[in-house]
From TrEMBL, chain A:
Protein name: F-actin-capping protein subunit beta
Family according to the record: Belongs to the F-actin-capping protein beta subunit family.
Coarse class of the protein's main subcellular location: cytoplasm
InterPro entries referenced in this protein's UniProt entry, alphabetically: CapZ_alpha/beta (IPR037282), CapZ_alpha/beta_2 (IPR042276), CAPZB (IPR001698), CAPZB_N (IPR043175), F-actin_capping_bsu_CS (IPR019771)
Any one GO molecular-function label of the UniProt entry: actin filament binding
Organism annotation: Aspergillus avenaceus
Compartments, as annotated in UniProt: Cytoplasm, Cytoskeleton, Actin patch
Role summary: F-actin-capping proteins bind in a Ca(2+)-independent manner to the fast growing ends of actin filaments (barbed end) thereby blocking the exchange of subunits at these ends. Unlike other capping proteins (such as gelsolin and severin), these proteins do not sever actin filaments.
Oligomer and partners: Component of the F-actin capping complex, composed of a heterodimer of an alpha and a beta subunit. Heterodimer of an alpha and a beta subunit.
Domain of life: Eukaryota
GO biological process, one term: cell morphogenesis
One Gene Ontology CC term in the entry: actin cortical patch
From TrEMBL, chain B:
Database matches in SUPFAM superfamilies: Subunits of heterodimeric actin filament capping protein Capz
Subunit structure comment from the entry: Heterodimer of an alpha and a beta subunit.
GO cellular component: actin cortical patch; F-actin capping protein complex
Source organism: Aspergillus avenaceus
This protein's name: F-actin-capping protein subunit alpha
Family: Belongs to the F-actin-capping protein alpha subunit family.
Top-level division of the source organism's lineage: Eukaryota
Amino acid sequence: MADAQFDSALDLLRRLNPRDTKQNLQAITSIVPDLTEDLLSSVDQPLEIRRCPKTNRDYLLCDYNRDGDSYRSPWSNEFDPPLEDGTVPSERVRKLEVAANEAFDVYRELYYEGGVGSVYFWDLDDGFAGVILLKKGVTPGAKSSGEWDSIHVFEATDRARMSHYKLTSTVILHLANETEALGEMDLSGNMTRQVEVDLPVESDASHVANVGRLVEDMELKMRNLLQEVYFGKAKDVVGELRSLASLSETSKERATQREMIMSMHK
Amino acid sequence: MASTVDIASSFIEGAPPGELADVVADVKTLTSDGPDIIASLAPAFARYNETQLATVKLPGASQEVVVSEFNRLEGNRYFDVESQTSFEVDHVTQEASDAQSYVLESQNADLVKSLLKLLGAHAREHYPNSSYGVYPIENDSAVAILLVANRYSPNNFWNGRFRAVYQVPVADPTTVTGKIQVDVHYYEDGNVALNTNKPISLSVPSVSAESIISRIATAERDYQEDLNRAFVQMAEGAFKGLRRQLPITRQKVEWEKVGGYRLGQDISGGKGR
């Protein structure tokens, strides 16, 4: 039954308003508390920002840098509130994590021109895994706002002179606008994509570049996809519901066109 | 803490267009450890059907009629002016039964019927799949005008609904108020929802069914044009401001140079880069 309930919970969260995912997730887990752990690790939610007390830099919170009620800052490698025995990456993987944070900081500046980013790595038996988080909000008008959250989770499995990368990426995009002419308009949601690839690894430095390129390509693809769905598909469906042109005239024009084509073929 | 019935009710009422049955199935599975709660959700189903302007097929007929707070009689009975029928609605299954002849008794019956005829013509001109209704409300002191258009394409992972509700006070029929709501759901490899709510307030130049429907038709056209422009503005504004398609240099990131060099092996050769 637990598997069926987990599937139903995911299906429900895919149907109910994506703006309310957080509340709906809480509501589901209050009905079926056993699902809490599994749902928290499989349902992506907008990222929260916290300030690192040691470095005074902002970082992002997620299930992967959480230990109990504390979160690990990628800048200091320390937990807040402090933990005596919090889980931290091995020395080698922490080194990689530091390098990846520096690299993605440059990436964030280039593509987001602001926002907040954080990278967390952890050890696996046959490699390592990580999550790259990026968040940005804008308020172009008093009642117009936008928020972008990128969550890229990957596993890098060691092979001979190669590494197998599996990347799962989710972008949560919320847009809202309110004007006199328009009333309220809310366009919100999330999309997920996966990719798997084998790439050559000469040294640990290759990992940062490999993951960087994978995430960069994925975000470009997803940005195009979001653009298509949010501003193309949604608008098309509105056009399916209501036709700006008169339907009787449209069908008359079509009939005339058909007749013309028929007469040309005679 | 909210009870299971409260939570399940909010899920029912939050079902996107055309996906009520899927949400119900999920709710049943999630609550399968306890007693069957579907019967206790009847009020939530009723609220969903009335606010979403659910459409039901009359027994033995092919046409669909609207369920709303404006054409409710007693209990779960509703009436339809065009077919002169009253009917019982099972809110959980969205099925109509026990159809009976219903003659509209209203001082404004003529206005209601003229509005209905013109609204029908307007609906056929612009909504490929719609249902509509006109009903006397508030002790015959006003008239409600409703239109709902649905398009469901679950095989392509999208569904949509357009709702318009207007009220015309009979004592002062030059002021029409109401709202237009559009809901679109797209859920292939994700979950994307468009929800809009546009309050409407119209001054009608002369007191006639023709001028009322004509102003409504114009308001709906203007709104669709405003909405189409808003899609473009969001794409060009907020969306572009969140993440660039390419860095300002038009070059992708040179990953070997932006952090990897700090990893041991490249430190000695750092100068050469």
